[in-house]
Amino acid sequence: MSTLQASAGAAPEVAVPRSRALDSRPVYRWLINTLFILVSACIFVPFLLVVVSSFSSEDSILSHGYRFIPERWSLGAYRLVFQSPKILLRAYGVTTFVTVVGTAAGLLLTAMTGWVLSRSDYRFNRQATFYVFFTMLFGGGLVPFYILMTQYLHLKDSLLAVIIPGLLSPFHIMVMKGFLSKIPFEMIESAKVDGSSEMRIFFTMVLPLSTPALTTLGLTIAFNYWNEWFNAMLFIDKPNLATLQLAARPDAQHDRIFDRQHRVRQAARHRRRAAAEVQRTDGDGHPGRGADALHLSVFPALLRLRPDARLAQRLTFRNGNPRGGTGPKNACSRRRRPT
């Protein structure tokens, strides 16, 4: 027995040839590591810029912009936040509630809708799928949406106005439909033979099998609810119902966080800076040209370009002659003579 073990232990090792893929594995690892380093840098560098800018003074940001090394370091932003921490804590609570409730309800409704559209025995499968797909191409518009939420559903100053619009997304429904259509229909038929109802099949078979799709869509829905600002801006006016993104806006901070005296001082400071900027650059980067067009909107200015050009053509002399004439004499001769 010992002789066999010794002979087995003394057996020479067989050299296994390495393939080209194994030989080139370090190169692929280097490329993959470089790619992930670049992607991580694209995510980390903006975050680092935000953190560094929070320690920069307001005057430094207005004068020199955002920099990784500020001109002047300051804790004014943190003092401003901690002046009234209840505002931000309440906004965090509202955003967390909206995110949790909206994500759970959105996943449930998306899974149920996708499961119905993926069933081959559903009579109106094509019509319902086209109806969902049509909403991906065309929307109802902002004004009808606002009228529906405020005058018909009466959801003004309600968190339901922030939760309901994000519950169902046509893209999420189509993704869930494509995933659930891969489930073998024989499993559903066998469950029906065993006496399972539709609800039991959905909650005990379909949902556990669709965990990967639910995880992916849940992450997307949660991010959308956490970053929700537009619907809150439209329908939320009460400060105690403001979400985090709405409370973090500069105008919202001046209205809800600062006291009245601080707002007056801040407004006076901005007016002085705006007046100095107007005197220096006219607000458009050209110094010493006045401030006649500072508050002119872009679209009226664009609409006035063509009429102004026509008016200039009518009033401008070409080579000393008016348009359509031979000189000042001709222009005067066109006037109506008194009778």
From TrEMBL:
GO annotation, biological process: transmembrane transport
Membrane spanning stretches: 30-52, 91-117, 129-147, 159-180, 201-226
Biased amino acid composition, Basic and acidic residues: 279-289
InterPro entries membership: MetI-like, MetI-like_sf
Subcellular location, principal: membrane
Localization of this protein: Cell membrane
Keywords: Cell membrane, Membrane, Transmembrane, Transmembrane helix, Transport
Membrane topology note: Multi-pass membrane protein
Domain ABC transmembrane type-1, chain residue ranges per copy: 92-307
Single GO cellular component term: plasma membrane
Keyword Membrane: yes
Keyword Transmembrane helix among UniProt keywords: yes
Region of interest (Disordered), residue spans: 269-289, 315-339
Protein name according to UniProt: Carbohydrate ABC transporter permease
Lineage summary: Bacteria, Bacillati, Bacillota, Bacilli, Bacillales
